[in-house]
Amino acid sequence: MSAVREQLPEGRYGRSADERADRKLKIAGAVLGVLFLGLMGWFGWHYVVDSRISAETIKFDVVSDTEVQLHLEVRKDVDAQGVCTLRSRSEDGAEVGRKDVRFDEAKDRIDTVVSIRTTARATSAELIGCTAR
């Protein structure tokens, strides 16, 4: 019996269609990967550089059924002005209070306690975010 060859002799007919497709896929993957990394770098750069105002909640205190006090620390450029939005929630997660606080002072760090009026007893208070104006 004779052996039957299923493959072409190597090197005689050039690259196979599978090898060409694999090479094209590798190139397309590399290009997409570089574009993705560039996009992530661009978003990261703008997040860090364009963030002229950042803030964090230090603590909050439920004063009564209709008021929560939130200790807020804001860091910003001296000439920046902005607004921070605060929210208070009840035990079931419903929003019971919201307040926008403006920061126009010519300081780079502002440490303040903000009072938020609520429609029901709150169990939490949080900073939603800050935007520069």
Overview of this protein structure:
With 133 residues, the protein is an alpha+beta fold. Helices cover 25% and strands 43% of the residues. The chain has one helix spanning 17-49; strands at 53-64, 67-76, 82-89, 95-103, 109-117, 124-132. It has a three-stranded antiparallel β-sheet with strand order 1-2-5, with no helix packed on it. Strands 4-3-6 form a three-stranded antiparallel β-sheet, with no helix packed on it. A hairpin with a 5-residue loop joins β3 (82-89) and β4. The longest helix has 33 residues, at 17-49. The chain is elongated, with a radius of gyration of 29 Å. The N and C termini lie far apart (86 Å). The model has no long low-confidence stretch (mean pLDDT 87).
Features:
133 residues, alpha+beta, three-stranded antiparallel sheet, 1 helix, elongated
Order of helices and strands: HEEEEEE
What are the low-pLDDT stretches, counting only 5+ consecutive residues below 50?
A: none
Per the principal axes of the C-alpha atoms, what is the gross shape? elongated
Instruction: Report the sheet with the most strands, covering strand number, pairing sense and barrel closure.
Output: 3 strands, antiparallel
Put simply, the count of helices is: 1
Order of strands in the sheet with most strands = 1-2-5
The percentage helix is: 10-25%
Average pLDDT, rounded to a whole number, is 87
What would you call the structural class? alpha+beta
Count of strand segments: 6
Give the terminus-to-terminus CA distance: 86 Å
Radius of gyration: 29 Å
**Beta-strand level of the residues, as a percent range?**
35-45%
